[in-house]
Write a structure and sequence with these properties.
Muramoyl-pentapeptide Carboxypeptidase, domain 2, 211 residues, four-stranded antiparallel beta sheet, 5 helices, single chain, alpha+beta, two-stranded antiparallel ribbon, 2 domains
Length: 211
């Protein structure tokens, strides 16, 4: 697999470590080893990033792993794994960040559903802005929100696809909303992707939860 050049933009070591541990949990140590070898990242097999907030895990590494999942497991298999890893990553790390604090407070529990959704999405935007070089923003429309990522680590350096590939972010957003809403599921769809030639990756989140 051709190597994606380093970007000079980074996720935190802690985030990268949880991402890799989540991937291992889903596909096993052997599966993780295969992915890392295929992506040219074999040095990570026995040397996961340290558990700290230093920004040192290059966006290109995450993009290489994401591409390897599709090339090894196929589009459908890679999508399913990426969705599960995104949900597991949120559950294991993002809900513990300060921006997500207050979800268990009584005042939060009394908020209308749409206010909870907006709170959760804005909190995720802040988490990534404060702990990585990802550029995220939130746009509200009449019946949905748009989570916009202008500098996306999941598809960094790619212009080689005809369909959106940032399933990891879809899973992460879905799990975040599942948590803040008290167990509801929401429709989340990537409608634009930098890897397809778009200016940003955009994720449409319907305000009404799924029945």
């Amino acid at each position: 697999m051709d190597k994606i050049p380093e970007s000079g933009y980074f996720n935190s070591n802690k985030f990268a470590r949880i991402f890799l541990e989540s991937l291992q949990e889903i596909i096993g140590q052997g599966g993780l080893n295969s992915i890392l070898n295929y992506a040219g990242l074999a040095y990570l097999i026995n040397d996961l990033p340290p558990d700290n907030l230093e920004r040192a895990f290059d966006f290109a590494n995450l993009s290489m792993i994401n591409r390897a999942l599709t090339e090894i497991y196929g589009e459908r298999g890679g999508r399913g794994i990426s969705l599960r890893v995104g949900r597991t990553t949120f559950d294991d790390v993002l809900k513990d960040y300060g921006a997500m604090a207050g979800v268990s407070d009584q005042d939060f529990k009394l908020l209308p559903k749409n206010a909870k959704i907006e709170f959760g999405l804005k909190a995720m935007v802040r988490v990534f802005s404060e702990n990585s070089d990802q550029i995220s923003s939130l746009i509200e429309e009449s019946d949905h929100f748009v989570y916009r990522v202008e500098r996306c680590p999941v598809c960094w350096g790619r212009k080689d696809v005809e369909f959106p590939v940032c399933y990891y972010m879809v899973g992460l957003i879905k799990e975040g909303l599942h948590w803040v809403s008290g167990g509801e599921e929401f429709q989340v769809k990537e409608t634009k992707c930098i890897a397809m030639g778009d200016m940003a990756c955009e994720f449409e989140i319907k305000k009404e939860f799924l029945d």
